[in-house]
Amino acid sequence: MKTLILNGSPRKSGHTVALIKEMTAILKGEIKIVDCYTANISPCLDCRYCYNKKGCSIKDEMQDIYEYLVDCDAVIIASPMHFGTISGKAISVCSRLQSYWSSRHIRKVDKDNLKPKYGALVITAGGNWPNIQILAEGVADYIFDHTETEQIGSVYAKETDKYPAKDNVKAVDQARFLAHRLNELCSK
Ligand SMILES: Cc1cc2nc3c(=O)[nH]c(=O)nc-3n(C[C@H](O)[C@H](O)[C@H](O)COP(=O)(O)O)c2cc1C
């Protein structure tokens, strides 16, 4: 089993990383964690290379992610909530998934030979208000869709300003549950 985790937090020992650790302690097989704040990955520059060719013209660390996405089994998007959705750096990295959109809708190639995957969304948020999840779920929908990933669930550790995510029993339980479920689904 191979899992790609996109870590959208700038904080090395922050709330998001605490939940990532809960999951990596359970996930079987190989795990690749992409730190969106330190990875050498440019945002999509809309050069439109992918309108005519497979892949992306920008030769940076995103090329490793494209390669990993070919046959990985699971994708986890883990990010602090910034301005109501995943962090800007996480969105920047994921903008490079646009090449998959171009394959489907411009070049009309049905799939990019990506193995179908299962995925989970992990969000930590300082606050708590009704419908806090709407924007993050919407953005995650795009990411999961572009990577041929079926989302199996989400974790929200809210009010991290008051309660650290690592002590949020409900969020930790849900993160562990989703890691076990990914193991089950990906081993079938
Ligand atoms: C730039 C920025 C924007 C933020 N926007 C929100 C927000 O829209 N809603 C919210 O509940 N918390 C917001 N927060 C708080 C973070 O979501 C919260 O502190 C989070 O748990 C940090 O996770 P980390 O320690 O993994 O980075 C924001 C924090 C920053 C730095």
Q: What does the model show?
A:
- With 188 residues, the chain is of the alpha/beta class.
- The chain has one domain (2-186): 3-Layer(aba) Sandwich (Rossmann fold), CATH 3.40.50.360.
- The protein has helices at residues 15-24, 62-71, 88-94, 98-105, 134-146, 169-186, and strands at residues 2-7, 30-35, 74-82, 85-86, 117-124, 149-157.
- Strands 1, 2, 3, 4, 5 and 6 form a six-stranded mixed sheet that branches.
- Helix 1 (15-24) links the parallel strand 1 (2-7) and strand 2.
- It is globular and about 50 Å long.
- The mean pLDDT is 96.
Q: SSE string, helix = H, strand = E?
A: EHEHEEHHEHEH
Q: Which structural class should the secondary elements be placed in?
A: alpha/beta
DSSP helix fraction: 25-40%
CATH class: Alpha Beta
Net shape: globular
Output the keywords.
188 residues; alpha/beta; six-stranded mixed sheet; 6 helices; 6 strands; 21% strand; globular
Blueprint (SSEs and pairs):
Elements: E1 2-7, H1 15-24, E2 30-35, H2 62-71, E3 74-82, E4 85-86, H3 88-94, H4 98-105, E5 117-124, H5 134-146, E6 149-157, H6 169-186
Parallel strand pairs: 1-2, 1-3, 3-5, 5-6
Antiparallel strand pairs: 3-4
Helix pairs in contact: 1-6
The structure holds flavin mononucleotide.
Short recap of the structure:
The protein is of the alpha/beta class.
